[in-house]
Design a protein that fits this description.
The complex is a heterodimer of chains A (about 700) and B (about 325). Helices cover about 40% and strands about 20% of the residues of chain A. Chain A has about 700 residues and is of the alpha+beta class. Chain A folds into 2 domains: about 325 residues, ABC transporter involved in vitamin B12 uptake, BtuC (Orthogonal Bundle); about 325 residues, Neuraminidase. In chain A, helix 6 packs antiparallel against helix 7. Chain A is elongated. The two termini of chain A are about 55 Å apart. Helix content of chain B is about 70%, strand content about 5%. In chain B, helix 3 packs across helix 9, helix 4 packs antiparallel against helix 5 and helix 5 runs antiparallel to helix 11. Chain B is globular, with a radius of gyration of 20 Å. The relative contact order of chain B is 0.18. Chain B has a domain of about 210 residues. Chain B is mainly alpha-helical and about 325 residues long. Chain B contains 14 helices and 4 strands. Classes of the chains: A alpha+beta (about 700), B mainly alpha (about 325). The interface between A and B is large, with 56 and 48 residues.
Chain lengths: ~700, ~325
Amino acid sequence: MALSESLARLRYKYIPDHLIGEILSKRWADNLVPLLFLLLTVAGLGSFIPNFFTIQSLSDASRQLGEFSIVVIGLTIVMLGGGIDLSVGAIFGLTAFAAVSVVYIFAMPIWLAFLAAVGVGALAGAFNGFLIGYLRLRAFLTTLVTFIILRAIFDILVVDHAAEIQLSDVSSPTWDFIGDGTILNLPVSFVAAIVVAIIAHIFLTRLRPGWHILAVGGSRRSAYNAGIAVRRTIFMSYVISGVCCGIAGFLIAARLSGVGPGTGAGLEIMALTAAVVGGNSLGGGRGSIAKGLMGAVVVLVLTNGLIRLGFNSGANQMVLGVVLALAVILDVRWLKNRHKMLAKVYVAPIYAKMDASRSAAPDSGSPYALNDRLANTEFIGLGELEGPEDVILDNDDHLYCGTRHGDVVRYFAPDYKRHEVFAHTGGFPLGLAFDRDGALKVCVGAMGLYSITPDKEVSRLSAETNRSRLSVIDDARLRDPNDCDIAPDGRIFFTDSTTRYDAHDWALDSIEARPTGRILCYDPRTGKTRTVLDRLTYANGVCMAHDGQSFFFAESWACRVSRYWFDGPKAGTVEIVIKDMPGYPDNINRASDGRYWMAWLGMRTPSFDIALRKPGMRRRMTRRLPQDDWLFPNINQGGVVKFDENGEISDVLGNLGGLSHPMVTSMREHKGYLYVGGILNNRIGRYKLDGADPAWTSNRSYWGAKS
Amino acid sequence: MPSGGSLTQDPCMNIRSHIRQETVVLLLAVAIFIASSIFLNGFIEASNIVTLVRGVALLGILAIGMGIVVIGRGIDLSVVSILAISVACMLQLLNMSYSLPSALAITLAGVIVMGGINGFLVAYAEVPAIFATLASGTFVYGIGRSQWLSGDVVYMPDNQTGFMAMGELKFLGIPAEIYFFLGIAFLAFLALRFTRPGRFIYFMGDNFAAARNMGIPVRPVIVLQYIVSALIAFVAGVIMAASLHSMNTRIVNSTLLYDIILVVVIGGIGLSGGKGGIRNVIVGTLLIGILLNAMTILDIPDLYQKLIKASFLLVALIADGFINPRDEQTDQAGDI
């Protein structure tokens, strides 16, 4: 091996390129940029400004932060619902006035002041919500206008009643405590903000109305069509924002013991900047309370820092304007290009060396030599079927297969001319197996393991397995359940081909060649699924051996068949049965003579074998070329192979030129015939086997004569 | 001409679409004018008419710029900031004894750059117009006020007699502002009606995706739109400074911006774009100008005037919502 190739092998073995794509595909990746910005701001200003981190300065800042972040939380909720609320500053001022007037003018108890503030906030929010939710006005302009209206009312009230408030001699220890006191050394307003944040977070992530807000923000039309009361949900989001402003207004009223014309001035642009800088999307649907809080800290640190640095009045607006514009640009561009970038970065090929195989050329004399025997099969369902990945027959000789449209179709014996939709699964049914009671177990692509009773009742058996500890991507989810088989005790062993790609992206997995496939075991006694084997290179076919203690499984991109013992003296061991085949193996099934049938979905080519040793080339290929120009495994030519427990090849069926059966993904022997399916084919082939036991059926082989 | 004529395709709205919004607004303006002349003391006096006409002209000039942007389905919230800061900076330069042409050239360049930045943000960075201009307006005011200007109000140096005289200029007893307003309105009318970019603005406002698909250079046209809007704001600012002999940057915090939007919406230029024209701006300006003047004569306190104007705008927005309805099936996420 050349030195450069050894280096490539080591580099692609130890540097986990795939993590970049996996991290970017996570929702929490959206938090990374705001968090970085937060750290930079705090560190930058902290080192610039002396005494920035003293207790006194932090305590003042945290009081401010408490009120401010409550307002930002409200705005964040509105933005998540796809709206915007520019009237927060005015509502904030108005509610502060409400609280102050209850305490100082009417000399009423503090709890009433709180209720008044929250009530005024809710009322103002309801006004916004009615206009935007029910009358469907444009949120931005409408709240700008309500901002002017509420601000004008506030200014009129302040002018009329300022003196009255200042001359009042009411004093209340509770009021002072809310304004100046601390709980566990934390200012009251800060504690209040934490409580509001936790409640808001639970509301958004765990409760139905919160989910509705996110759904409406994510896609208004889909939410409407899904039956969510869109208008009411939007209305509620503004009411919530108003209530948040009310709480914050109450807190600032207590802190300042009064209101002035400047209360809440310019708050809307600060809150808006905070919410956007934190990473909440303008269009709605994407964002979280945590993001709003991060933004609140950034904005407060920035504005306080500017004051401490001695800039005069306009500087705040200058910086906020720039930060707002940059944050919005980042948000818009990120939302627009995220999936493009992800698609570019996600495919992370590894180095894989394929050892030389024996030839499959027709006249090579090797045991793999292909022939044209599958060219002359009878066709079943020609032109009616799309994508019969696996085929199976029941005790009455009816034929079942999956289709691309999500159905399991049944063709009736004896001539297989008539058919019916046996059941609809919604996903792409792949591997099939009958259990002892005649129920059909189906691996449904992208969905999981399902069971269909003879009465056509569909039920889900498994959609998740145990999560492995260190995987970034969610590997509990079944992405590509491919083939299944059933042990004598009823346990179902099935393959999940890859954890990194959805079923229809299998070709990307072949280019990446990363071993992420798994074999899972569903135990009907507990209803649980756990991972039995992992790190397989596209785990595909699985078939119980005749001994009932072990199964064979195929790894497509490794061109390898192995045997795993789950019971008996060799339990837990894996042995390679066949390696370095010239074809990519797919499903495996039992044969009548004690051997096994295996489908080849395609044949290896020298060009793709070399490409597997050049991960850099494959990476460049996926990034720079359109998909039509990529180098894929050859799937224009497949076949069926018969092998025994020692890995000896005893028979090969092929279709040279691939007019009838180019890509073979499964075959099933039944009463002297072999039924051949292909995931990209439009037919099932029926091939007469010479010398095969005309009474043998797969079901009898598994479950005995009585079934 | 897409102005006002086709308010909606809904057949049951046919009767309403015969009565154009601009006709209603014009009749309303005339009615209020007559009512004010009869019931308000001093409304019809020559001196008040001059004041009214001046206020109307300024509002109208600004509304023309806003109207052009709104027709192209945008909005420009930075006009008042640009108006105030650019003219204040020009006066500051004059105070620093720059010559008038060089001060004019410097500020003009600055104004074009700001308009260009607005356009770039909207067209190339694809930031929603309302955010881009809100941010840029805030930025312009912030940087001007904190970095360039020494105080809130910048006065015109006494040696600029020619400039000051412009404010007093009259033809046939009518202040020069009116001629500026009519001149700009006529130019904008010609541009929107007979030039390529003008027609493109209508297409973009009517159906942006279709306009882009048929090959209209949408991005350069958007940039042009915002540059024109900024330039018109600057012209309005110069006229304002000529008559007041100073520029008060606190105007940014006034409701001038909302008066402008009010004129545009009331005049009948739908906020969803593609509709209306300069005629709508003129009738909107007349109505709002007369209303503002009447309120001043009635001696309504400034705060209450604010309240009344904002309520008017709210009613206008609600009416706009009914005339140009949006619904769950056609709303786009982010279309706020």
